[in-house]
Amino acid sequence: MLPSAVIEQLDPAADPSGQRPRRTARDWIVDFSCFLLAVLIGLVAADTLEQERDLPRVMEGIDQLIGALACAAVWLRRRWPVGLAVAMVPVGFVSATAGGAVLVSLFTLAVHRPFRYVAWVGGASAALQPVYYWLRPEPGLPYAGAVLFGVLLTAAVGGWGMLARSRRQLLLSLRDRARHAEAEARLRAEQAQRLAREAIAREMHDVLAHRLTLLSVHAGALEFRPDAPREEVARAAGVIRESAHEALQDLREIIGVLRAADSDDAGRPQPTLAALDALVAESRQAGMKVALEGRVTDPGAVPASVGRTAYRIVQEALTNARKHAPGMDVTVSVTGAAGDGLAVTVRNAPPAGDVPHVPGSGQGLIGLTERAILAGGTLAHGPTADGGFEVRARLPWA
C-alpha cells in the first residue's frame, strides 16, 4: 500500500484536513488544456448535428446548451472526479456536443481513482454506445463501425488514464523511497558518531578512573595532614605527579585504541608517524602505486598521539583508494613543524573505467573525522576537480 502522503498527492480530495491545495501553474495549464480539448470536440460534434435532418432546431439548441454546460463542468474535475464522471454518462447519451467533456471526465477518473471506478463508469458508457448510435446514427459511418469506434475510444481513454496513474504512483513511490534512504543514511551517520563518543566515554572511564582515584586519595591526605613528615609529603607528591603523568599518557593512548577492529589491539604497541614508511611499503607490496612526498624531517619529534592520528588517517585513506580506485596513482603528503601543525593529504587519481561495487558503510571517514576533532584538528574529504578523491587533515603540533 502507498503511504498516506502519496495517496493525498494522487488524490487531493483525500486531504484529511479538509483544505483544498491551491492549483499550481502546471495545474492551470493542464485544466485549461482539458477544457479546450472538450470544447474542440464539442465544436466538431456540433457540425455533425447539422447533417442530422430529422433533428429539430430546438433539440439541436438543447444539445449545444448541454454540451456547453458539460465543458464548463470540466473545471470541477479535480474536486469531484467520480461525481463528474457519473454525471457525464447520461449527459453524453443525450448530447453529442458533450462527448469531449465525457472523455475528459473518464480520463480524470482513471488518473485519480482505482480501476473499479473506471470499470463501472467506463462499462456503463460503453454499454450505452449501441443504443446511442441506434437512436442517432453517425452520418457516413456504418452502425457496427460507429459502435466499435465508440467502445474503443472509451477503452483507450480509460487505459491512458490508468497508465498515467500508474506512472505517477511509481514516481511518487521512488521519491518516497529516496527520502527514506536519505533519512536512514543520516541516522546511520549520527548513530556512528554517537557510538564513537560512547566508546570514548567508556574508555576514559576505564583507563582514567584508577589514576584519578589515586590523585584524589593522596591529595586528600596532604590536605588533612599538613603537618605530616617531610618524607611522607614528598612520597605523596611523587605519587600524585606520577599518577598525573600516567593519566595523561593513558588519555593520549585512548584515541589509538578506540576504533580498533580487534579488542586485543588495546594491548599492542600503537603505530606512530615513524611507521608511515612501513605502511607505504606494505601498500606497494600489495600492488598500489603510492608516492610519499613532503616527509617530516624528524618523525620521532612528533607527539605520539598526533603521529598515531596521522598514521590512522593515511591508513584509512589508502584502504579506501585501494577499494574505490584500484591500480591508480596515490600521493601521500605529510608536512609540518613544531608550532605550525601537521598537514596530512592523501589524493588518488580518478578510477579508470567501471569499478566493481565494494560493500562499505562509509563509517571509516566518519571515524577519521571524530579522531581528528578529538586530537584538536580538522579533517575534510571529497572529490577533486579531475574526478579523483582527496582527504585533507590538519593536526596540532605544539
From TrEMBL:
The transmembrane residues are 28-46, 82-110, 117-135, 141-163
Residues forming the Signal transduction histidine kinase subgroup 3 dimerisation and phosphoacceptor domain are: 197-261
Q: Which residues form a coiled coil?
A: none
- For the DUF7134 domain, which residue ranges apply? 25-168
Recorded hits in InterPro entries, A to Z, give: DUF7134 (IPR055558), HATPase_C_sf (IPR036890), Sensor_HK_TwoCompSys (IPR050482), Sig_transdc_His_kin_sub3_dim/P (IPR011712)
Pfam families of this UniProt entry? DUF7134, HisKA_3
Its protein name is: histidine kinase
